[in-house]
Amino acid sequence: MYFFFSGALLSVSSAQTRQFYFVNTPLNWRDAQSVCRQNYTDLATIENTADVDAAIVALSNYTGKAWIGLHDDIVNSWRWSLSDSSFYGDGESTYWNWYPGEPNNYDGQQLCVHFYGAVNDLWDNYCSVEYSFVCYTGELPFRFY
C-alpha cells in the first residue's frame, strides 16, 4: 500500500493496539481528518500514556504542533474523532492530558486539539489553522513470532 502526499514526510510508530502515522502536510483539522479517514482509521486518538509515547515517536524529530482527533462538538463537549464507542476500553474515551489552563476556548471558537511534537500536553485551537497531523489505524501492528 502506498500513500502519496505532496511534500509530505510520513513517519510511523506503533502502540500495543494501533499504529500512528505522522503526516507532515499542514492542513486544517477537518481536511486532516478527511485524509486520515481515507487512508488510515482516523485522526489519532490518545487513550493512555503508551499512546502518547507512540504518537511522539511517530513525530520523530518534529517539534511543531500537530493535530490529533480530539475536538469539541459543542453538543457533547470534548470527544475523539472516532465515534465508535465499542473501540474504546474503560475510561479511554476520556483520556485528556491538557496543558495547565487549557482548554480555554479563546473567543468561544477553539474547538480542535493539537499537541507539540516533544510535549504530551493538549491545547485547544481554531480548527481552521493548518498544522501537520497524526493519524492512526486501529489494527494490531505486524509482529514476528
From TrEMBL:
Q: SUPFAM superfamilies in the record, alphabetically? A: C-type lectin-like
Q: Which organism is it from?
A: Oryzias latipes (Japanese rice fish)
Record keyword Disulfide bond present = yes
Q: What is this protein called?
A: C-type lectin domain-containing protein
Q: What is the lineage of its organism?
A: Eukaryota, Metazoa, Chordata, Craniata, Vertebrata
The residue range of the signal peptide is 1-15
Recorded superkingdom: Eukaryota
- Residue ranges annotated for the C-type lectin domain, each copy included: 15-136
Going by the UniProt record, its keywords in alphabetical order are: Disulfide bond, Signal
Would I find Metal-binding among this entry's keywords? no
InterPro entries, A to Z: C-type_lectin-like, C-type_lectin-like/link_sf, C-type_lectin_CS, CTDL_fold
